[in-house]
């Protein structure tokens, strides 16, 4: 199956499959009653310390990826349910960052895809 990425501010679509929010904090400007999602997997998001250190600074992107993958390696129980879901059907990882190329969902998608292949 496929793992997709989508900003929480984009409308849900039938192609999304299982919609999983992968943020530690609730997205700004989004009402809980209006966000269509199947799960909020905050435990798979980067730690508060790492998130604050990164601060969405593209200059820190390479190091952020390395540190976040290290966090994921240490917490397989956080991402294993997402991997199992992705083996059964399409999973869409929802994120709130304005930068669609430099955010935790991008790293998580690649991390999970490597395990699906491996």
Describe what you observe in this structure.
There is one protein chain. With 118 residues, the chain is of the alpha/beta class. It has helices at 48-54, 61-74, 76-88, 104-117, and strands spanning 3-7, 18-21, 39-40, 91-95. The protein contains four helices and four strands, in the order βββαααβα. A four-stranded parallel beta sheet has the order 1-4-2-3. The longest helix is centred in the middle third of the chain and has 14 residues, at 61-74. The two termini are 14 Å apart.
Primary descriptors:
alpha/beta
Give the fraction of residues assigned to helices: 40-55%
> SSE string, helix = H, strand = E?
EEEHHHEH
Mean pLDDT, as a whole number?
Answer: 96
Q: Which class best fits the helix and strand makeup?
A: alpha/beta
| Major sheet strand order | 1-4-2-3
Shape designation: globular
Summarize the structure.
By secondary structure, the chain is of the alpha/beta class.
How do the helices and strands line up, and which of them pair or pack?
Blueprint: E1 3-7, E2 18-21, E3 39-40, H1 48-54, H2 61-74, H3 76-88, E4 91-95, H4 104-117
Parallel strand pairs: 1-4, 2-3, 2-4
